[in-house]
Amino acid sequence: MDRLLVLVRHGQSEWNLKNLFTGWKDPGLTEQGIAEAHKAGEQLKDLKLTFDLAFTSVLSRAQKTLDIILGELGQTGLETFKDQALNERDYGDLTGMNKDEAREQFGEEQVHIWRRSFDVPPPGGESLKMTAERVLPYYKAEILPKVLAGKRTIVAAHGNSLRSLIMELEGLSPEEILKRELGTGTPIIYRLDENGGVISVQDLAD
Ligand SMILES: O=C(O)[C@H](O)COP(=O)(O)O
């Protein structure tokens, strides 16, 4: 049985382009982000992958990315579950702030820690650990059982909500997740064993 799970971060958003902390705000995709989503769909199509189920957040940048990918696969209208558990990490007081201005105000190191560490939240926001505390229960309750039942599944979400899931899937340490970046619109293909362990990972960015 093929236990297929594909994760993909949304394509570039309007606030990614403006270099603004986005979190739970809901900007759309840029033209580049739309093109990235089409390319992701084409990559999956070239690999002859199709899906039985889709999951995404309640934010439009992820939903639009998913719609474009499914369109490329001829699977528009595929059964899709949308849940805020998969939303991007909440950036709290940094939301809407320019990332370079934040670096000037708070220092390069502090901003890196807020963006990429496991358990240090941005002011008023969520740490990766706090994000995982909503992503992982949802994954284990709603997504994993369907993958283990052989439902080929795609999850279109966000840089940090996916990093929290990847940390679990790949058994990464807090030190290792610090270095893990996800490109926009780049599918990562996992095949799982009967216990949900990872047999193989194929990052289409590579
Ligand atoms: O929410 C955001 O600002 C981005 O989607 C992710 O930001 P980060 O890459 O700085 O964590």
Report on this model:
With 206 residues, the protein is α/β, with parallel strands linked by helices. It has 2 domains: 9-52 and 64-80, no CATH class; 81-151 and 170-183, Rossmann fold, CATH 3.40.50. Helices cover 42% and strands 15% of the residues. It contains 8 helices and 6 strands, in the order βααβαβαααβααββ. The chain has helices at residues 14-17, 31-46, 60-72, 99-106, 108-116, 128-148, 159-169, 174-178; strands spanning 4-9, 53-56, 80-82, 153-157, 187-192, 198-203. It has a 6-stranded mixed sheet, with helices on both faces. Helix 3 links the parallel strand 2 (53-56) and strand 3. Helix 2 packs across helix 3 and helix 6 packs across helix 7. The longest helix is centred in the C-terminal third of the chain and has 21 residues, at 128-148. It is globular and about 50 Å long. The chain starts with a strand and ends with a strand. The mean pLDDT is 97. The site of 3-phosphoglyceric acid has 9 residues, from helix 7.
Detail the poorly predicted runs.
none
CATH architecture of the largest domain: 3-Layer(aba) Sandwich
Shape call: globular
| Secondary-structure element string | EHHEHEHHHEHHEE
EC number: 5.4.2.11
Site (Transition state stabilizer): 158
Catalytic activity: (2R)-2-phosphoglycerate = (2R)-3-phosphoglycerate
Enzyme class: isomerase
